[in-house]
Specification:
24 strands; Rossmann fold; alpha/beta; 20 helices; 3 domains; nine-stranded mixed beta sheet
Amino acid sequence: MLWARYSRIAMLVVADMAIVAIAYYLAFWLRLELPGLEIRKYEAVFWRTLPWLMAIRLVCGFLVRQYMWSFRHSSLAEAMGLIKAAAAGTLFFFVLCQWGNIAPASLPGSIYVLEFFMSTAAVGALRFLPRYILQLASWRPALVVEGEAKQRTLIYGAGHTGELLLRDLRQAPIYPYEIVGFIDDAPTKWNVSIHGYRVLGSLKDIPEIVASRNIHKILIAIPSLPPARLREVVDLCSKYHVRLKVVPSYADLVMRGEAAPLALKDVQLEDLLERPEVNFDEARLADYYAGKSALVTGAAGSIGSEICRQLARHGVRQITALDMNENDLYYLSLDLAEMSPRPLVAVEVANIQDFDRLAAIFHRHRPQLVFHAAAHKHVPLMEQCPGEAVRNNVFGTMNAARLAERSGCERFVLISTDKAIRPASVMGATKHLAEALLRQLAKVSKTSFVSVRFGNVLGSNGSLIPIIQRQIAKGGPVTITHPKAMRYFMTIPEAVGLVLIAAALNEGGLYVLDMGEPLNVDSLARQMVALAGLVPDKDIKFVYTGLRPGEKLCEELFSASEGITLSSHPRIRVAHPAEDEWKMDYLLAELEEAARGDDPQTVRRVLQKYVRTYRPDGGEEGAE
């Protein structure tokens, strides 16, 4: 290995010195022989000064590491280093010749200039021609790769990243892209040619370019493109069968362990959110969770399982994963077993409604932290089964909370929902009560009880987005309850980050993430169709079914009676609900009797008695 490296350097040194000697002789010949002067008069000067010139060139070459380059990846930086080394060497050689008395003053100065240009050009060609030849050899203009036709492609972004992307794509023909040209928003770049491909226009020209040049794909080579601009691209492409890919940000590339710019990814819904993604202080979380033991209910779900993974990543000592879904719980245990550092993992198949079973689990594992993600969350189903919603979301929560208090837990975190505000559904009303019951427990307990309110979590099991994705995959139709329905959205990392930071902050009882403005569900679904390379209302039909029982036209994060303060995290707010007028024991006794009778109307009547803002007919509010 070392022999190959040093032999390569030796061959380069020999080649460079030969180039310098030839260039120096040609400089003498061009300057003295062609005009009719006698070159023989300066022959002794040539041989006396040549070793000095070769030594200077060699030293300058090593100083800029020109013998350590990779020819395949040589770039402008290396070219500038070569020119600087050559210029410095020529200047030093000239000074040495004139003031060091190794050459006569009569030696023409143009010889130094000629030698500089010829040797620099030849040494540069030696290093850059191989790369050009490799590019020609690796580029395949054929339109078929592994049996698939290449897709006519635009690159959005004619800057440095776009140029790198084009260069790498030309060297990697397995990527099925036939580059047509660039688009860029900077007018100074329009009609400019980059490696032979013209900048055809700006963002507003996308429809015309896509239609006239039969574009199939657009590669977005602007990693920091704002979400609003990205949504504009999606909307402009929504009338054409165009797929989008984007070069990830540097932070994403580091997380994925990939190299730019060929690490292209599909545009995700979270990329379109009308706000920057909320980040959390990883060091603070690691400091808080290191060495602790935690119990997660609903651990097999998309949120619960990610909480378990993040806890393991932050160095908890032990995780107790509890759920009724034994199949997904098993696969979660396999994932946790592969993590490093690996926590102790206890898997418990249990129902949170079973107090005795839950008590045995708390006694056996003695968790310091409890994350309560177990819940019945499907609004239409809970409208049909309100008694079950009460048993699980209210009494199941109380079982876990009381056992956490009894076993001396430090923190108990309830995952709630924006549907708990002025609830129109049974599910929302039960979550509202769960929040309120924890606030009453917190007044008399040493355990810290906190709640977090979620919006719609992108990609979570059974939520809105996966349902729409499944409908698109089947060819439609996409069913939307109401064209004006608005929802708050958050990503799974944001949801889990909110849960983890809520336990670590200990600054209030109810935390809400700043999710920006609510999004129109219909517009979001149309963007999802466009991202799939399909045309809304043409390839995929849209059907409006009307708001279902328990659904609201627009969700809310806070009620009018709640005070709101900022936490120490700039994107997390703390809600301070008004004091409840009812007594916990009376409420639980009446709810238990109603749930046992399993009469839907009785359950709703009791819920309305204790949740004054609960309006079972609120789902139709504002509908047209």
